[in-house]
TrEMBL record:
Lineage: Bacteria, Pseudomonadati, Verrucomicrobiota, Verrucomicrobiia, Verrucomicrobiales
UniProt protein name: Uncharacterized protein
Record region (Disordered): 1-22
Species the sequence originates in: Luteolibacter yonseiensis
């Protein structure tokens, strides 16, 4: 029976990267930074708008499986994806926020399969793909984004 190794296991093996054979700290042992940001709907958001959630610090990687979005019942077909200016769906697709819910990031996105190292401070964006309910119905509803990043210590 064969045993196969992930990229991290190879780095940890004797003779792997680093003086001690340990994998880089950002992959195995890193500080986890949490960004909590709340957006209050204006009531005039439309498809193709972007909501800037916050900034991923230089040297960090967003960890999609640790991230969540908490939404009040916004109504309509309010939905979107989470990414950055280079890739609107880098971290999540298909987040439907029309009902009150807590959602995990969705989809096997490149940011989860091949974590992206932010070489500079990088704005994280919610790209609206479905409009909220008519202006007065969604105005003042809140959406809270909980983003987790690793940063090499």
């Amino acid at each position: 029976m064969a045993t196969y190794q992930t990229d991290t296991a190879k780095l940890q093996a004797p003779g792997g990267a680093g003086d001690s054979g340990r994998a880089p700290g950002g992959l195995v042992s890193a500080d986890v930074l949490m960004l909590t940001a709340t957006y209050t709907l204006r009531g005039d958001e439309t498809t193709a708008d972007s909501i800037e959630i916050g900034t991923a610090p230089a040297g960090s990687r967003l960890v999609p499986h640790l991230c969540r979005v908490v939404s009040e019942a916004v109504g309509g077909s309010f939905a979107g994806s989470i990414g950055d200016a280079a890739d609107a769906t880098r971290y999540s697709t298909a987040l439907t926020l029309s009902s009150a819910a807590t959602l995990a990031f969705a989809g096997a996105q490149s940011g989860a399969l091949s974590p992206v190292l932010n070489t500079a401070n990088t704005p994280i964006l919610f790209k609206v793909t479905g409009a909220p309910a008519a202006s007065l119905a969604s105005k003042d509803k809140k959406v809270t984004f909980l983003l987790a990043f690793t940063a090499q210590n």
